[in-house]
Amino acid sequence: MADDHDHLTSIPRSPTDHKHEHEHEISGVAASDNININRETSHIDTDRGENLRRNSSGSGGHSSRSRISSGHERGFVQPASYLRRRGLSHPMAPSQPERAVDVEEQMGLRAIRNFLKVRTSYDILPLSFRLIVFDTSLLVKESLNILVQNGIVSAPLWDSSTSTFAGLLTTSDYINVIQYYFQNPATLDKIDQFRLNSLREVEKALGVAPPETIAIDPERPLYEACRRMLSSRARRIPLVSNDSQTDRSLVVSVVTQYRILKFVAVNVAETQNLRKPLKEIRLGTYHDIVTASMDTPVMEVIHKLVERSISSVPIINSEGIVYNVFEAVDVITLIKGGTYDDLSLSVGEALKKRSPDFPGIYTCSINDGLDTIFDTIRKSRVHRLIVVDDHFRLIGVLTLSDILQYILLEGEPEEW
């Protein structure tokens, strides 16, 4: 995984942002005119149909039929006019005017999407960074030590036998290994000989879906990278290019949801337009939230992480007040020495082993808008926000995936 600094260079806005806004306004006027034209046409055609029916049933039936068939005394009536529902000829009730906050929200979302479509994944990379890639023949224990020593939680995998990109190693893989040996205690003494190329066998044994081996060329639009992350439920995506001389894959870096959202927060001023509160846009999870207490055994929390495919569990007391959050990365700290004795600890004891520079947890209110949340992301390394009330009682959980999905898909058609 690329280990880099949080400093991002502000990028000038593209002139195409304003161009898209004018195009949207023009097309909106055209659409409105078409609606009026269609209504008038429908009304005229319906009247013609009435006249034709009256003429064909009058006292001079033969003469009327002759005039209709000749087509000289009346204009041509399109067949579609007979198929239209007559109700459409009446003027539609005027729609309610949009609120200013709704208009600004849409303007902010449009600006973010336009920005992501004209920037590539290369643009998000810092000027200097480290990239650690693991060979699939590496022992799980050795890979764990390397992650801890370098302060990272994931790394791309490389299959040297085929010289190909083999996926991404994350904390979920280590948690799956722990779960596997918990269910098969007789094989615990073989854990030190377990290699990274056997991780897929662990997933099959546990019955969990293997993570998709997704990647994207760094020259593709950043918008496309975001859509791939959402479709695969991945929290990060490797950047893999193709070497034209050797025709082989080349791992460039890894981009996370946090880095993408911070990139947006730094460079798109229109994030301040997103002022609609979370409760109105219904963003986040507010029902069936997995929780634990300080006395809950760590292994019980790990089971919940695997069972629900989640990355964190809020820690609350009997009154629902949030004390802390147990994260999937906390498991790495407990097994970093290659021993698994600390997995028998309670959550409260395990959290004491966190690094002193742990940033803490971030909270927000259900009345907060994404404008203030983007401010927090711009200033701090945030991976999720716990939604609480005025008394710090748990209400919900807002993840970066929730935010990314909203800014990309809200108001968009179902298909991509």
Description:
The radius of gyration is 30 Å and the shape is globular. The protein has 15 helices and 12 strands. About 18% of the residues have low confidence. A 3-stranded mixed beta sheet has the order 3-4-5. It has a 3-stranded mixed beta sheet with strand order 10-11-12. It is α+β, with helices and mostly antiparallel strands and 416 residues long. Helix content is 42%, strand content 14%. The longest helix is centred in the first third of the chain and has 41 residues. It has 3 domains: 80 residues; 146 residues, CBS-domain, CATH 3.10.580; 133 residues, Roll (CBS-domain), CATH 3.10.580. Pfam families: CBS. It comes from Talaromyces stipitatus (strain ATCC 10500 / CBS 375.48 / QM 6759 / NRRL 1006) (Penicillium stipitatum). GO terms for molecular function: ADP binding; AMP binding; AMP-activated protein kinase activity; ATP binding; identical protein binding; protein kinase binding; protein serine/threonine kinase activator activity. Keywords: CBS domain, Kinase, Repeat, Transferase. Belongs to the 5'-AMP-activated protein kinase gamma subunit family.
Topology:
Blueprint: E1 2-3, H1 16-56, H2 61-70, H3 80-83, H4 100-118, E2 130-131, E3 134-135, H5 140-150, E4 155-159, E5 164-169, H6 171-183, H7 199-206, H8 222-232, E6 236-243, E7 248-256, H9 257-267, H10 278-281, H11 298-308, E8 312-316, E9 322-327, H12 329-335, H13 347-351, E10 363-364, H14 370-379, E11 384-388, E12 394-399, H15 400-409
Helix pairs in contact: 1-4, 6-7, 6-11, 8-15, 9-14
